[in-house]
Structure formats: C-alpha cells, structure tokens
Amino acid sequence: MTSLTLRQLGPDDLDAYRALRLAGILEAPAAFCTTHAAESAVPLERMRQRLVHTAYQRMFGAFHDGRLVGCAALSREPIALIHDRANIWGVYVAPGARGGGLARQLMHACMAHAAAIGELRTLTLSVRRGNDVAEALYARLGFAVVGASDDGEQLRMAMGLSPRA
pTM above 0.70? Predict the structure, then answer.
C-alpha cells in the first residue's frame, strides 16, 4: 500500500525540493522560466529561502511513500499598491506520479492558503502555450486567460477571490 502526503515544505526539505526541481527542468524545460544550468547555480541558501514560510510565500509539496513527487508555490506581493495579488508558480509533478490528481491537490492547497489571506483579491499564474493539460486544469479551477507574454510563449491566467466577510 502506498502513502500520499500533502504538506507545506520547509527548509528541511531543501535537498528533496532541489532534486525535484532540477529533474523537472531536465524533463520539461519549456515549462520552467529558467534553465537547468541557471537553477543548478542558485546558491543553496537562496534556494532554502524559497522554502521559508513568510506572510508572502508558501511552498507546498506532495510526497509519495516519503519521496517528494510534486510541488507548487504561492508568492504574494509585499508592495502596498498591489498587495491584493498573489502568484502561483513552480507547479510540477514528476512523470511517475501524474494522472492521480496531484497537481489539482497542490493547486487547491495554494488556493486555500490564498483564500485565508483576507486582503488577497486576485490569483495569477503563467502557463506555457501548448501545455494543454495544465491550461485545462487551471481553467477547471476557475482561472481564465487574461493575456500573454511579449513573445506569446506564456499565457497569463487569473482568477478573482471572493472577499472574506
């Protein structure tokens, strides 16, 4: 019997996170906004900071039998004028763990965390044009295409969050 756990990642998950991210960039380079060489060169302390929970960021991970197989992050803008927006990024599920709804569960974790932050009104994300599976998932979750990158390769998607009473 296999075990699946979904939880927030922390600094102690650095090695597993780094390994999954680098493997993902090798497996699907077009889905990431970086290269394997650039990500490999990121100092470990800087990468560890991605996993520190703050009022402005959370990283969620999916573990299958204790092994990290998926992740997704929520980053919020600290600038007062746009503090009502947050971005979901780094959504990735390893090939062997796909097809079981992990990406949807990771997205739900990010969305639930965002919904608990009273001042957030908009969630955004980007998806590589042609990544039909991801785009369809995001649309089912309530995101709509609102634009594209200057080169047309990335679609920008957004969804509104209901104000909390």
Answer: yes
Using CA atoms, how far apart are residues 122 and 127, in angstroms rounded to an integer? 17
Residue ranges of the chain with pLDDT lower than 70? Answer: 1-2, 79-82, 163-165
Average predicted confidence (pLDDT) for the chain: 91
Which residue type does 85 have? Answer: R
Domains and CATH numbers, the chain: 4-160 (3.40.630.30)
**Given the structure tokens 């991605």, which residue do they identify?**
50
CA distance linking residue 111 with residue 159, whole number of Å? 10
Residue 83 CA to residue 120 CA, distance in Å, equals 7
Q: How many CA atoms lie within 13 A of 101 on its CB side?
A: 8
| pLDDT tens string 127-154 | 988 889 999 999 999 999 999 989 988 9
72 Cβ contact list (under 8 Å, min separation 6): 59, 60, 88, 89, 90, 91, 92, 103, 106, 107, 109, 110
How far apart are alpha carbons 154 and 138 in whole angstroms? 14
CB of 91 closer than 8 Å to CB of 133: no
